[in-house]
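ok so I'm stuck.
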Amino acid sequence: MARKDKIKLANNNSVRFPVPNEMGNMLLIGNFDGVCGTLCQLDNGKYTFGIFSDALRHNGTLLLKTLQAGKHIYLISTEETHKYFQRLLTIFRDKGWLDKVGRDKAIRRQYHWCELDCTKEDTAIIDCVNNRLYNGLNEMKFENIIQNPPYNGTLHFKFMELGIKMLTSTGTMTIIEPATWLINLRKNGDAEMYNAFKDRIEGHIKSVVIENLNKDFNIANDMPFATTTIDMSQTFHSIEFVCCGEKRENITSIYDCNLIGNYNTIWSIFDKVMAYGDSMSNHIYNSECGTNYEAYLRYWNYQLYALGSNYGKVVNQYNSKSIAVYRTLDFGSFFSSYVDSLYYKDVKDTIPLSRSNNECDCLCGTKEELENWKYNVEHNRLFLFLTMCTTYDKHNNATDIVPFVCDKKYTNDEVNALFGFTEEEVSLINHTVARFEYDGEWFKRYMCGKGSVSDDDVNNFVKSIMD
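replied:
not stuck anymore, here's the structure
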């Protein structure tokens, strides 16, 4: 996975500074090189603006107004971004825009830089920033915080927590980071940390945008990015939520800002399938068998996550509908890993032999049971829905949830009746699978980014599947 500190932001609108409720101290965390557009060097060695872009007009104006108001700008970043800001402030000075605050001396007092050394361990990075910036400044608070932190494990999330600690009670914070903490639907593992943070900011979320920004940032991230704006001065009864161009209405909780839909409905489905009494995990591995086992039918444990590849390669595979990447089921074509995590080989006629030429212990079930399982995966949306909900990184984490339904071949209606799904739950299953279908505009936007399909086309498609 690409480290987030390598992202370049020049000449794009992916980072748009929020307008604070009142002008106060500003904190910038991460890589903001080029956030006000490209700076061009003149023959005399000085720098000037390349073009007066929207990024310059909006972001540059906020930086300038912060300084003109006598407030401070703290930058936690790499040296590359620091040099960019030094050149930017010099341009402000040379153009006479900072006369009100006393030019050079005031700039030196108001602009502060703390190096973000991404070669250190995550804990050391956070401790250094915390001690130097928070404790070192007598627990200074900020009115405006913008984060584009390095992404390495949970490092970006620790910066989010640090940002909330340093935000004033009326402050705003915008965070640009991988959407893991939002699209993770579990309640255990890292989800416990994510959910505690969600509970802390619930009601103060102004907007969330989930989008594939791999092309914009020139990286190959395993998941889409999220731009989240928090305003602690207000209590919001609804959240402006856009997911891959789709504007979702009536979103009242941060938990519902995910790829799938209503969090409580998702977990109602999870609870019902886990109460079935038999999951895939019971048919994968048995420690008593040691290494002398085989199965008629296998599943793929390590996912090739949909976005986790070179951007150009992902687009080429999508445009060519590569049979190595997409598989066709009874109700459409889908990214292969969603199916491979349920099974990826045909059912074998006989139990294979081990390396010692002995018959292996078969864990998954009889040939008839596995033929039924394969049929049910190919003809029922539920199983694909569950892998779409639970696959958010390179590993198949669905096995504890997906029920191993193999006693007979089921229709969709029979499966829904078997688990007692409500009309709302059936609707969520069907609409989710339709969103992720290869031929749909939503999935193309998800795979190929915001330049591939317009917002209008995405929303018209979603409306058509809802109708």
